[in-house]
Amino acid sequence: MGNRKRIVEMCLDLMNEEGSRAVGTSRIADELGISPGNLYYHFKNREEIVMVIYEDLDADFRAALVEDVHAPISPERFAGFFLRTLQVAWEYRFFFGGMLHLLRRDEELAARYAGLQAWAIDTIEGILTQLIKDRSLTRPKAKTGLRSMAINLWIVWSNWIRFIQVSDPSGEVRRDHLIQGVGQLLDILAPYLDPSFEKAGRRVLTRELKKFAEEAADPAS
Amino acid sequence: MGNRKRIVEMCLDLMNEEGSRAVGTSRIADELGISPGNLYYHFKNREEIVMVIYEDLDADFRAALVEDVHAPISPERFAGFFLRTLQVAWEYRFFFGGMLHLLRRDEELAARYAGLQAWAIDTIEGILTQLIKDRSLTRPKAKTGLRSMAINLWIVWSNWIRFIQVSDPSGEVRRDHLIQGVGQLLDILAPYLDPSFEKAGRRVLTRELKKFAEEAADPAS
DNA sequence: GTCTATACATAGATAGAC
DNA sequence: GTCTATCTATGTATAGAC
Prior knowledge:
The structure is a homodimer.
Chain A: H1 3-18, H2 25-32, H3 36-42, H4 46-66, H5 75-91, H6 93-97, H7 99-104, H8 107-133, H9 145-167, H10 175-189, H11 195-217
The first copy, chain A, binds a DNA duplex through helix 2 and helix 3.
């Protein structure tokens, strides 16, 4: 694998582990056993590395939210949206952790992320609208209810990992925390969901939790 | 006013404006027209300044959430909890913006904030329980529903300001954004709220919005 | 309490050899 | 494509005079 790619991956790993601020260009180079000069041959500056990573995040998130959206939306697929996107939030957790600072220092990144956020909220609203058509969701009374719901889902989604990290500073985030996050998102919608749809969605979580517990007990597989 | 206090206030202002990371000790001293040495006479290090500010935040938040909690809880008081606490989140927005980084570099701060978070979620759950006793809120079906609701309220609360900041990178956060945030929090509870209780709560927001619009139109007052 | 001067570490970035 | 060497800027913090 070329050094360019190795730099990006090391940067992502280190930043996820220690936060974006703690990771500088010299640190990345050190860790890879290459020279700072080499790193700067591949990238104009530190921002550029982060931007490359952000592009992956952006693409992964959009793919996770758009994948398999054909109507009607099954509870399994609906739970899948949440689970896949939370997985993305986990894989790029450094970004959400240090977001404000990263965006402040890079206007282009700020604009792009604002765009992703706007798109995400619209798309979530679209999914909710589809659920209403499918009769899996009751329309909220207030006109702005759907949008408000989409915003709340987005906020909880984009901050769930941080919430877990802060709750237990010395603990690590595990897959069951992600599954718990999906439950948390479902709870926002619960009062509007068709009971059997909700039940089926929750079953997916129970199944995932079981799978995780088994893997944890038997790491061989 | 003594320099110690001026340092704390300047630090808070600068960090709120530019993010905690962008503000160093030399910058604070510069801005106040005092020497770095003077700053270090008053504080052991930068962490200590942040800790002093955090202590205010902690106290202000607790006071805002506990103030005037006698049962039964009126819709006006309930809306007041949200409005006052969001005001606190706004006054110390630097902390929420750079939280993960701040907590990573200061174990004591991390422990204290984790404590505040746990207390807050418990206290919110307590308020919801009181609302159920008052018959202003319907108990959610799931056993863990109340707690989940409290967590969602907390997550949206603690990240609302950041959400607004990121939504419009070049815009400023105004009081009407805070009021919108209260609406957002109410929406999480809406399906469980007694309709007349909810209506009265919303009226508080309309009134606050009107007050803000008038003040904006007539800054003299 | 406050100042000047300075030490020290680290991070971002570049020049030029190989 | 990669290296060594180095520059520059900045931030944290201290020593010692006033």
